[in-house]
C-alpha cells in the first residue's frame, strides 16, 4: 500500500466529509410532519466519513515504506486518448455523433498501436455509422446527428 | 401449489419469442464478456443497461423491465461461463471468480485435455445453475413473506447488515471499504430530497437535481476505470492459447466430477445467498473442500478434473444464489447484483418482498429465463467453445477505444446530456485511481443504490418514533439484524488482530 497516496486520499475524504457536514447544516432542519429533516442523513454520513478518514490517516503510519518501483506506464498514450475523449464529449453536440465518434475511434486505434490506417478507418466508420443507423433510424433513439451548421 | 403456477406463468413470459431472443443475446454477450480479459461481469452488465433500455423502448413498462432484466441476468451468468475459458486456455482468468480454475484447468490444457476441462466447466455450471434455480423457487416465496412483516426500522437494519456484509469482505482494508460505502451513500443524497423536496448539494446546477445517475457512475468506475488501467499498464492478451482437442468428456471423467459438481453447486449456492460472499469466495471454498475430501489430494494442481468441476460449479451456483437476497429482500450482495438492482429501479421496479406481488411477470419471468439461459449456455458452449476461444485474440488496439465509445454512447443515450459524459470520464479516472490504491469500488455502487432506501426507511422509522434513535434497538428483529451486522464486522477484525489471515473478496 502506498503511504503518500493514502495520506492524500485520507485528507481528501476528510475534506469531503467535513464539506457535507457543513453544507447539510444549511439545509432545512425539518420536513413537514416530521422532526427528522433532510439534513440528518447527510450530516451523519459526513461525520462517519470524517471519522473513517482519521482512522485511515492513523493506519498509514503503520505502512512499511516500500521501495516504489513502478513499472513503466504509458502516460503519453493515455493522455492522448483522454484528451481525445474529452474533446469527443465536448464537441459531440455541435459536430454530431457520427463524425465525432469516427474521429475519436481513429485517433484511439492509431494511438493504441500504429497500424495500417485503412483498417482503423473501416472499423471506426463501421461502428459509428452502425450505432447511428441502428439506434437512431431503427430504434428511434436520440443522438446528435450531423454538424449544426449543416441543418 | 401457487408457486408452481407462478413458475409456469414465468415460463410463459420467458418463452415469448422476443424474451428468448433477449436471453440468447444476453448469454452470448455474457460469454464474450467473460472471455475478454479487459471487461468483467460488472462492467459488462453496466455497459449493456443503456443498450437494453433502447432495445426495449417499444414495450410496455412491465414487459420492458422483464425483457431487459432477462438480458442483463443472462450477461451475468454467461460471464461466469466465459470466465473459465481463458483460465483454462490461457492461464489468465477472465474474471476473479475463475482464478482457482487456472490451477488445474491450465494443467489439464497442457496435458491436451483442454476440451474436456471446458466441457466439464460448462456441465458443472449448468448443474449449478439448475440447483440455484430450484433453491430460488423454494426460498423466494417464504423469504419475501418474512420480509413483508418488516417495518421501516427492520428494513433499515437489514440494509445495514447488507452493507456490513459487503464492506466487511471487500478488498484488503476494511477502513477503505467503509470509506467507499459512505462515499456512495453520500453521493446518493445529491439531488432533490424525495421526502421534503428540498434540493441538496446541487448548487443550482440543473443536471444535479435528479441526483447522480447510478448508471453513469457504475459505467465510469468499472468499465472506463478498467480501460484506463489497460491503456496505462499496456496490458496485452497475447499469451499462448492451448489447443482444445477432444471436447466430449469420457465416462470416467464424468464419474470423477459428479461428486465435485454436486458439492460445488450446493456450496456455491449457499455462499451466494450470503450477502458479501459471492462467486469468488465460493470457488475458493469449494476448491479447498474438494482437496480435503479427495482420496488423491496430491493430484490437485496437476490437472485434477475435480479441481475444475468444483469451482466452476460453485461460482455459477453463487451467482444464482445471489439473486435470492436481491429479489426477495431487495439487498444486493455484490457489485454485479447492485448493478442489476439499479437497472430494475431504472424501470421503476423495486426489488424486495413486494416484487413477487407487484411485478410477478418480472420476478418469475427472470427465474424461468435463468433456466432457459442455462440450457442455452450449455448448447452454446459445448460446440462453440472453439469460436469463443478465438474471441480471446481480439486485439486490445480495437477493443479499448471501442469500450470507451460504447460507454459514451450508453450514457448519452440514456441521459441525453454531455454533462453526464463528462461525469462518466471523471468517474473513470477516479475509478482507476481508487482501484489502483486498493479502494474497492463495489461498496461505493452499493451505497449509491441503497442510499435512498436506507435514508427513507431511517426517516420513516424516526418519524414514527418522534426522533428517538433507540427505535432501531427496541424492535427485536431490528436488534438481531444489527447485532449480526456488528458481528460481521467485528469477527474478522478480531481474527485479524490475532494474526489470522482472512480471505477477502478481491473482485468487489
Q: Topology, pairings included?
A:
The complex is a heterodimer of chains A (about 150) and B (about 500).
Chain A: H1 3-25, H2 40-60, H3 75-95, H4 97-112, H5 117-138
Helix pairs in contact in A: 1-2, 3-4, 4-5
Chain B: H1 2-14, H2 17-35, H3 41-55, H4 61-90, H5 99-110, H6 114-148, H7 152-169, H8 174-188, E1 191-192, E2 199-200, H9 214-232, H10 251-273, H11 278-293, H12 306-321, H13 323-329, H14 335-346, H15 355-358, H16 360-391, H17 396-415, H18 418-436, H19 442-464, H20 471-474, H21 476-497
Antiparallel strand pairs in B: 1-2
Helix pairs in contact in B: 1-16, 2-4, 2-16, 3-4, 3-9, 3-14, 3-17, 4-5, 4-6, 4-12, 4-14, 4-16, 5-6, 5-12, 6-10, 6-12, 6-13, 6-16, 7-8, 7-19, 7-21, 8-19, 9-17, 9-18, 10-11, 10-12, 11-12, 14-19, 17-18
Report on the architecture of this protein.
The complex is a heterodimer of chains A (about 150) and B (about 500). Chain A is mainly alpha-helical and about 150 residues long. Helices cover about 70% and strands about 0% of the residues of chain A. Chain B is mainly alpha-helical. Chain B has one domain. Chain B has helices at about 1-15, 15-35, 40-55, 60-90, 100-110, 115-150, 150-170, 175-190, 215-230, 250-275, 280-295, 305-320, 325-330, 335-345, 355-360, 360-390, 395-415, 420-435, 440-465, 470-475, 475-495; strands at about 190, 200. In chain B, strands 1-2 form a two-stranded antiparallel ribbon. In chain B, helix 7 (about 150-170) crosses helix 8 (about 175-190). Chain B is globular. The model of chain B has no long low-confidence stretch (mean pLDDT about 80). The chains are: A mainly alpha (about 150), B mainly alpha (about 500). Chains A and B meet through helix 1, helix 2, helix 3, helix 4 and helix 5 of A and helix 8, helix 9, helix 17, helix 18 and helix 19 of B. Chain B: InterPro entries: DUF112_TM. Chain B: Keywords: Membrane, Transmembrane, Transmembrane helix. Chain B: It comes from Geobacillus thermodenitrificans (strain NG80-2). Chain B: It holds the Pfam family TctA.
Amino acid at each position: 500500500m502506498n503511504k503518500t497516496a493514502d495520506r492524500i486520499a485520507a485528507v481528501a475524504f476528510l475534506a469531503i466529509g467535513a464539506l457535507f457536514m457543513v453544507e447539510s447544516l444549511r439545509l432545512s432542519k425539518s420536513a413537514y410532519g416530521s422532526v427528522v429533516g433532510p439534513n440528518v442523513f447527510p450530516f451523519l454520513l459526513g461525520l462517519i466519513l470524517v471519522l473513517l478518514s482519521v482512522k485511515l490517516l492513523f493506519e498509514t503510519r503503520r505502512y512499511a515504506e516500500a521501495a516504489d518501483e513502478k513499472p513503466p506506464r504509458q502516460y503519453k498514450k493515455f493522455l492522448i486518448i483522454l484528451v481525445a475523449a474529452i474533446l469527443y464529449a465536448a464537441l459531440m453536440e455541435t459536430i454530431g455523433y457520427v463524425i465525432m465518434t469516427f474521429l475519436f475511434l481513429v485517433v484511439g486505434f492509431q494511438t493504441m498501436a500504429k497500424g495500417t490506417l485503412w483498417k482503423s478507418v473501416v472499423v471506426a466508420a463501421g461502428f459509428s455509422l452502425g450505432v447511428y443507423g441502428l439506434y437512431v433510424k431503427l430504434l428511434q433513439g436520440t443522438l446528435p446527428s450531423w454538424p449544426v451548421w449543416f441543418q | 401449489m401457487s408457486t408452481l403456477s407462478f413458475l409456469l406463468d414465468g415460463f410463459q413470459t420467458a418463452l415469448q419469442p422476443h424474451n428468448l431472443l433477449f436471453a440468447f443475446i444476453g448469454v452470448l454477450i455474457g460469454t464474450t464478456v467473460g472471455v475478454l480479459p479487459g471487461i468483467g461481469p460488472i462492467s459488462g452488465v453496466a455497459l449493456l443497461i443503456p443498450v437494453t433500455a433502447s432495445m426495449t423502448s417499444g414495450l410496455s413498462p412491465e414487459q420492458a423491465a422483464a425483457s431487459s432484466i432477462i438480458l442483463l441476468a443472462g450477461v451475468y451468468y454467461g460471464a461466469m461461463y466465459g470466465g473459465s475459458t481463458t483460465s483454462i486456455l490461457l492461464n489468465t482468468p477472465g474474471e476473479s471468480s475463475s482464478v482457482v480454475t487456472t490451477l488445474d484447468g491450465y494443467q489439464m490444457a497442457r496435458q491436451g485435455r483442454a476440451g474436456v476441462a471446458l466441457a466439464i466447466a460448462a456441465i458443472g455450471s449448468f448443474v449449478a445453475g439448475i440447483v440455484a434455480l430450484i433453491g430460488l423457487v423454494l426460498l423466494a416465496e417464504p423469504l419475501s413473506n418474512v420480509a413483508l412483516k418488516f417495518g421501516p426500522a427492520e428494513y433499515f437494519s437489514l440494509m445495514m447488515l447488507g452493507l456490513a456484509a459487503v464492506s466487511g469482505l471487500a478488498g484488503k482494508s476494511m477502513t477503505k471499504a467503509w470509506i467507499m460505502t459512505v462515499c456512495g451513500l453520500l453521493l446518493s443524497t445529491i439531488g432533490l430530497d424525495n421526502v421534503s423536496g428540498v434540493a441538496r448539494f446541487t448548487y443550482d446546477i440543473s443536471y444535479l437535481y435528479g441526483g447522480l445517475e447510478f448508471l453513469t457512475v457504475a459505467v465510469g468506475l468499472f468499465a472506463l476505470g478498467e480501460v484506463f488501467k489497460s491503456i496505462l499498464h499496456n496490458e496485452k492478451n497475447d499469451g499462448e492459447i492451448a489447443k482444445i482437442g477432444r471436447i466430449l468428456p469420457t465416462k470416467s471423467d464424468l464419474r470423477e466430477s459428479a461428486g465435485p459438481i454436486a458439492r460445488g453447486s450446493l456450496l456455491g449456492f449457499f455462499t451466494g445467498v450470503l450477502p458479501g460472499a459471492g462467486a469468488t469466495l465460493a470457488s475458493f471454498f469449494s476448491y479447498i473442500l474438494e482437496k480435503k475430501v479427495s482420496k488423491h489430494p496430491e493430484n490437485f494442481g496437476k490437472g485434477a478434473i475435480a479441481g475444475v468441476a468444483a469451482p466452476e460449479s460453485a461460482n455459477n451456483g453463487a451467482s444464482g444464489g445471489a439473486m435470492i437476497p436481491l429479489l426477495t429482500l431487495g439487498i444486493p450482495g455484490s457489485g454485479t447484483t447492485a448493478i442489476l438492482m439499479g437497472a430494475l429501479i431504472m424501470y421503476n421496479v423495486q426489488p424486495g418482498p413486494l416484487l413477487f406481488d407487484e411485478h410477478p411477470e418480472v420476478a418469475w419471468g427472470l427465474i424461468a429465463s435463468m433456466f432457459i439461459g442455462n440450457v442455452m449456455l450449455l448448447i452454446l458452449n459445448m460446440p462453440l467453445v472453439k469460436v469463443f476461444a478465438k474471441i480471446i485474440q481480439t486485439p486490445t488496439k480495437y477493443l479499448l477505444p471501442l469500450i470507451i465509445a460504447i460507454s459514451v454512447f450508453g450514457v448519452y443515450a440514456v441521459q441525453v446530456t454531455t454533462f453526464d459524459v463528462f461525469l462518466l470520464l471523471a468517474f473513470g479516472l477516479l475509478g482507476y485511481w481508487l482501484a489502483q490504491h486498493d479502494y474497492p469500488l463495489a461498496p461505493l455502487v452499493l451505497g449509491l443504490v441503497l442510499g435512498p432506501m436506507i435514508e427513507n426507511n431511517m426517516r420513516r422509522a424516526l418519524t414514527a418514533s418522534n426522533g428517538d434513535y433507540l427505535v432501531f434497538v427496541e424492535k427485536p428483529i431490528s436488534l438481531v439484524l444489527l447485532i449480526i451486522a456488528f458481528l460481521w464486522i467485528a469477527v474478522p477484525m478480531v481474527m485479524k488482530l490475532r494474526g489470522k489471515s482472512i480471505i477477502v473478496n478481491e473482485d468487489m
